[in-house]
Design goal:
Elements: H1 4-14, E1 19-25, H2 31-43, E2 48-52, H3 63-74, H4 79-90, E3 98-101, H5 104-110, H6 112-121, E4 126-128, H7 138-145, E5 150-152, E6 154-155, H8 161-169, E7 175-178, H9 192-204, E8 209-212, H10 218-225, E9 230-233, H11 235-242, H12 249-260
Helix pairs in contact: 2-4, 2-12, 11-12
Length: 261
């Protein structure tokens, strides 16, 4: 079958639309609600959901995602939990892409072959590993490619032009541009650095380009949409869910998504 990420971006392009990619910390507020959040956010217009695998030392994440990640770890959430949540989502939605986002150490400890095999069987479409440099990613890239899973690379404003070209050669699914050098988190203004980075990456990329880190308002998303193929919203949504209980999380999250559109 056609990879769901490719199909999603093709459909967006056909309809002259831009994508909305949302990040959820797996297990917050609980596993069942995480799956319900994903399903209802898809129903409300999200195109791709990223499920975060919690990690004790998330280098790229700001306070909001660090705290939710720690809460998830305290509840015993691990890679297998993430696969269970994927299965719950796939039982009711076989169309929208699910991307797992996690740091390399837990994936390596789990075993690359086992991780990719289970990801495929659970209906995962893409994997983002923020702390895995291009040079060290080629074994994982090969394993992903042979299982029709996209390994999605991050590109930062500090990435050199030569390196951007190299990453674009290996671009798969979509490329994740980071709007500012540093950690994730909702910001009041959108960085010009991020917009300029998207423009540069689009010169070399053969796959769609998404922009994330710091998007929290409709105005910011509209600005992103002028240049990128999709906007990625993480911390602002995680913050809303973290400040909700399991009875209000889904409603509050879908209300936020509607405000962005």
């Amino acid at each position: 079958m056609t990879n769901r990420i490719k199909k999603t971006f093709e459909n967006l392009q056909l309809n002259d639309k831009k994508g909305i990619i949302l990040y959820l910390t797996t297990g917050i507020p609980d596993n069942e609600t995480t799956a319900e959040l994903a399903l209802e956010l898809f129903n409300s217009g999200a195109d791709i959901i990223e499920l975060g695998i919690p990690f004790s030392d998330p280098l790229a994440d700001g306070v909001t995602i660090q705290q939710s990640s720690q809460k998830a770890l305290d509840k015993g959430v691990n890679i297998d939990t993430c696969f269970d949540v994927c299965k719950m989502i796939r039982n009711k939605n076989d169309n929208n892409p699910i991307v797992l986002m996690g740091y390399f150490n837990p994936i390596l400890q789990y075993g690359l072959d086992e991780f990719i095999s289970k990801a495929k069987s659970c209906g995962v479409d893409g994997i983002i590993v923020p702390d895995l440099p291009l040079e060290e990613s080629l074994i994982l890239l090969e394993k992903c490619s042979s299982n029709d899973i996209n390994l999605i690379y991050l590109i930062a404003p500090t990435t050199s032009a030569e390196r951007i070209k190299e990453i674009c050669k290996n671009g798969d699914g979509f490329l994740y541009c980071v709007s500012v050098a540093g950690i994730t988190g909702a910001r009041a203004t959108l960085s010009a650095e991020g917009i300029n980075l998207v423009k540069e990456v689009k010169q070399y990329s053969t796959v769609p380009v998404a922009l994330g880190f710091g998007i929290s308002t409709k105005i910011q998303l509209a600005e992103v949409n002028k240049h990128a193929d999709a906007g990625i919203i993480g911390s602002a949504l995680v913050n809303i869910i973290s400040n909700s209980d399991k009875n209000t999380a889904v409603q509050n999250a879908t209300d936020f998504l509607k405000e962005l559109q």
